[in-house]
Design goal:
two-stranded antiparallel ribbon; calcium, potassium:sodium antiporter activity; NaCa_Exmemb; NCX_ion-bd_dom_sf; 12 helices; 79% helix
């Protein structure tokens, strides 16, 4: 049991490190290719920061434990909106949103998450469900590209050549593949030895650590006084998790989702967080540090509660 837990922890350290290198290489390559800042911040980083979830998901489905893939995607989305979103507000003191996104951004985010829950409510995600999720993601991305204007950011030009960054990206992808494979197998063994469900292991253990790269990116934007952009890749990563990641997994290999009390509780909590997030942001076009702190505390409440709900506490 302890060996499996240490393997998961060590694997997540490698995965987080590789993900960080991948994010840096992707953003640097984007600058070298002279992509618009919007493309770098909102799209490329949004994709890059969910690479760990995609690799874990693919390996989990291949290993025959799709509950771990589903739990990791749900758990990471919950962590993004509550813990990471809250931390952004706390460190920014008051996060102004009206200059960053339109309300339809938040609506698209909400619809994407709710759509996933509706499709999974029957306990099975088919290839058709996966296709619907992929279409939903394409629609979100198309709308995002159509009305976003370029941002004026002062980002230092990369010193390394494009070839070096492409090599770093390749090595990072290989490291993420093998580390996620080790995490999945260790998670499977841990579920057997402890009696914990793969979904619980993913939500309570893997997802919080996997959210670290996203937190690093967001806090770096805050530190660089670019907090007005920090929800850009956060929103993209949540939508990618809810639509693209699960869509790819179910389209490649349809899987069954056991709708247990733990899954129902996690879905209910996600819906509540979405409602709170919508209320906080839409009421005054800002997220105060007090509201952010409430979201952070809510996340720790969720982590504690899932053990009680599952009967593991």
């Amino acid at each position: 049991m302890y060996t499996d837990a240490l393997t998961i922890f060590a694997g997540m350290l490698v995965l987080v490190g590789a993900s960080g290198l991948f994010v840096h290489a992707v953003s640097s390559a984007g600058r070298i290719l002279k992509l618009r800042e919007f493309s770098v911040v909102f799209v490329l980083l949004g994709f890059a920061t969910v690479a760990p979830e995609l690799f874990i998901g693919l390996n989990a489905v291949h290993a025959g434990i799709p509950e771990l893939a589903f739990g990791n995607a749900i758990g990471t989305s919950i962590a993004s909106l509550s813990f990471i979103g809250g931390m952004i507000a706390v460190f920014s003191h008051s996060f102004k949103t009206k200059n960053f996104f339109h309300h339809r951004d938040l609506s698209s985010l909400t619809i994407s998450v709710v759509l996933l829950f509706l499709l999974a409510s029957d306990g099975y995600l088919s290839r058709l469900d996966g296709t619907v999720l992929l279409i939903a993601f394409a629609y979100y991305l198309l709308n995002l590209i159509q009305y976003r204007k370029a941002f004026s950011l002062k980002i230092k030009e990369p010193k390394k050549t494009l070839a070096v960054h492409l090599f770093i990206m390749l090595v990072s992808l290989l490291a993420m593949h093998f580390s996620s494979q080790a995490i999945v197998f260790a998670g499977k063994d841990l579920a057997v030895t402890t009696g914990l469900t793969p979904f619980l292991i993913a939500v309570a253990l893997i997802a919080p650590i996997g959210a670290i790269p996203e937190l690093i990116v967001e806090l770096e934007l805050v530190r660089s006084k670019l907090s007005n952009l920090s929800f850009g890749d956060l929103f993209t990563s949540v939508v990618v998790n809810s639509t693209l990641v699960i869509g790819i997994l179910s389209a490649v290999s349809p899987f069954t989702v056991q709708v247990t009390e733990l899954v129902q509780f996690s879905v209910l909590f996600m819906v509540i967080i979405l409602m709170l997030f919508n209320y906080f942001v839409r009421s005054r076009d800002e997220l105060s540090w007090q509201e952010g702190l409430f979201l952070v505390i809510s996340y720790f409440f969720f982590i504690t509660s899932i053990f009680i709900v599952s009967g593991a506490a």
